[in-house]
Design brief:
single chain, about 260 residues, alpha/beta, Rossmann fold, eight-stranded mixed beta sheet, about 30% helix
């Protein structure tokens, strides 16, 4: 019995890492890495952008993903089960320092060009629509890319969006959101207590996508009791305990387009 249990445990460990690391060269000499899982019957590809410094540390191997608490990183298999090819994007190699992508890089042209490399790779490999999904500071990356890349992407999902001005990045209301024409879904937890990703801010944010062909606001509730600080991922800010529900809402919105 013990031997059987051991085999099953090992099998489960490897199933959580059923993908590979891809590295693309940027025009400025850095490398843009991402972790890719493919679905044999995929109806779209999604690129997931974690919050904070944006670092997955994929240069140290894909097992680092097992230690990521971020909502999107820990939900990557849920996205795959919804018939998506899944790319979890890392900070580029020239942004792997102590501060990562803090202090403005997420809103730059360079960052958008890095993202374009990943989008082009996925479209060439799978020939499926590509959607960008961000959470917390990852929404800065997504909005910036949507503004700069125009028709390269098919839609964006913003969860726990950066709605308030702050010193570590660029809030979404500071960006030129009127340039975004693709479908936009905004998801917020009504008990998100992070001071820069407020539910009220998300309700105001959705109004700023005036040129988008379709917008949708989802205010969710419930989940587990927080076991981290309000701006960390093991709280309402990170949709703790309702990951399946949120990923399902995202999948429904993408499938509707």
């Amino acid at each position: 019995m013990n031997k059987i249990f051991f085999i099953l445990t090992i099998s489960l460990s490897f199933s959580t890492l059923a993908g590979k690391i891809i590295s693309l060269d940027t025009n400025r000499g850095a490398s843009q890495k991402f972790y890719l899982m493919k679905h044999k019957s995929a109806i779209a590809s999604v690129i997931l952008f974690v919050g904070g410094k944006g670092k997955l540390k994929l240069h140290k191997g894909k097992r680092k993903l097992l230690k990521m608490n971020n909502f999107l990183a820990r939900s990557r298999m849920l996205f795959k089960r919804q018939k998506f090819n899944v790319a979890v994007i890392d900070a580029p190699t020239d942004q792997q320092g102590v501060e990562g992508m803090f202090h403005g890089f997420r809103a730059t042209k360079d960052h958008a060009e890095d993202i374009a490399l990943v989008v082009d790779y996925l479209k060439l490999k799978f020939n499926k629509p590509v959607w960008l999904v961000g959470t917390s500071r990852g929404t800065e990356s997504v909005a910036n890319a949507a503004i700069r890349l125009m028709n390269k992407i098919d839609g964006i999902i913003l969860t726990a969006s950066m709605t308030e001005e702050n010193r570590k990045g660029t809030s979404l209301p500071e960006m030129k959101l009127k340039k975004i024409k693709v479908p936009v879904q905004v998801i917020t937890h009504k008990e998100d207590a992070c001071h820069v990703t407020t539910p009220r801010g998300s309700k105001n944010l959705i109004k700023k996508f005036s040129q988008s062909i379709k917008t949708e606001l989802q205010v969710v509730s419930g989940g587990d009791e927080p076991i981290s600080k309000p701006c960390k991922a093991k709280s309402a800010h990170g949709f703790l305990g309702i990951e399946r529900k949120v990923v399902k809402l995202i999948a429904i919105f993408i499938l509707s387009h």
